User: Which sequence fits this backbone?
């Protein structure tokens, strides 16, 4: 999407790759909305760290970062033998796969790159495999963009003139390579000239809604307001929210259950209570066809400091982290929750909108058979 920096508007992808320097180039998300800057990772370990420490976050964006990280690691190999290359690749794969547990895009992206390398004939040289890895990583990133475009095309019809949309966390272009999933229908509706309003859940503890979604929507000129996480029920009760669209970190193809940022489930329960349509927007890399039950989804538990503190800039523009909780109290910090299929009106995919329970039956149409 376009970002206005120092008075000039320029197009940026959230994640890209410099083949010349073998670096992954990322928008530094921990400093937004206060400072816009790009950061580079010089090797696959730094790339994995950037995912873990949330320099880059959001399911699609960490998928693309991991894909480039695997290509980066493959390209850095200078040994001679196939066996040493295979051992090195396994180390790179495992380091990146362990960077964050819940978003399945990360492992799906790694598997795509690994499969592209393995698809080369047994006679394929190491240098050819290194090229195949980079090509596959670039394809994953490009597919992410075309998937989000298609989500926008299918989802735009849900937004009419005057619709008041609630979204949770950041499932925008910062969470993908470009455009975003939950924001794609908004940007497509805006391009059609529709006038609507977006409520961004603040999304404690890391405040991705207040910091990132609000920043994105402001950059794109979309009418919006940040609300405290506890305010959505009140607005729904008063008839001030017409539609909810969120993203997903892992959507179970077998059941239609959706793991997404903590608090998504609460919003789905509230939406059902108030008969407000609740949609989840996903690229195909978010689908997990293996797990049979949502109990098997690994839910990331993050550091308690995120709950016990808050951070941002003071009125002199200095970045500060301050303690907001009682100094002797510990905290629990599950980062994701699971919304069951019966609370979801529809899943907006690049191939159309599906009932969550129809995903398995429709897997051929989704391109998975
Ligand atoms: O912890 P985060 O910021 O990576 O969590 C992001 C979300 O939960 C998004 O809603 C999700 O990734 C879906 S959109 C890519």
Assistant:
């Amino acid at each position: 999407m376009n970002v206005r920096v120092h008075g000039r508007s320029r197009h940026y992808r959230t994640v890209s790759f410099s083949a010349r320097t073998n670096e992954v180039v990322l928008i530094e998300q921990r400093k937004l909305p206060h400072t816009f800057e790009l950061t580079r990772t010089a090797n696959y370990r730094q790339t994995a760290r950037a995912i873990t420490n949330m320099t880059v976050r959001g399911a699609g964006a960490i998928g693309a970062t991991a894909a480039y990280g695997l290509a980066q690691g493959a390209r850095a190999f200078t040994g001679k033998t196939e066996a040493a290359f295979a051992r090195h690749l396994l180390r790179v794969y495992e380091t990146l796969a362990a960077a964050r547990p819940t978003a399945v895009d990360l492992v799906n992206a790694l598997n795509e790159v690994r499969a592209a390398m393995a698809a080369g004939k047994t006679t394929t040289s190491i240098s050819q495999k290194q090229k195949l890895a980079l090509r596959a990583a670039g394809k994953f990133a490009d597919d992410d963009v075309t998937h989000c475009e298609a989500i926008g095309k299918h989802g735009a019809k849900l937004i009419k003139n005057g619709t008041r949309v609630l979204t949770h966390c950041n499932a925008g272009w910062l969470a993908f390579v470009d455009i975003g999933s939950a924001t794609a229908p908004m940007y497509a509706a805006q391009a059609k000239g529709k006038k609507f309003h977006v409520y961004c859940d603040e999304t404690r503890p890391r405040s991705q809604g207040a910091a990132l979604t609000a920043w994105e929507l402001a950059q794109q000129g979309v009418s919006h307001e940040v609300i405290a996480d506890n305010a959505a029920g009140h607005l729904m009760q008063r008839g001030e929210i017409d539609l909810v669209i969120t993203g997903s970190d892992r959507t179970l193809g077998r059941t239609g259950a959706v793991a997404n940022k903590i608090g998504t489930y609460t919003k789905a329960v509230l939406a059902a209570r108030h008969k407000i349509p609740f949609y989840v927007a996903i690229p195909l890399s978010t689908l997990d066809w293996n797990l049979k039950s949502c109990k098997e989804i690994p839910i990331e538990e993050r550091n308690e400091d995120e709950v016990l503190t808050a951070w941002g800039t003071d009125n002199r523009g200095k970045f500060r982290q301050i303690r907001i909780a009682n100094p002797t109290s510990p905290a629990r910090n599950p980062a994701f929750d699971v919304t069951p299929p019966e609370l979801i009106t529809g899943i907006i995919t690049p191939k159309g909108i599906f009932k969550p329970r129809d995903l398995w039956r429709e897997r051929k149409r989704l391109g998975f058979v």
About this structure: Residues 270 and 365 are 32 Å apart (CA to CA). DSSP finds ten helices and 18 strands in the chain.
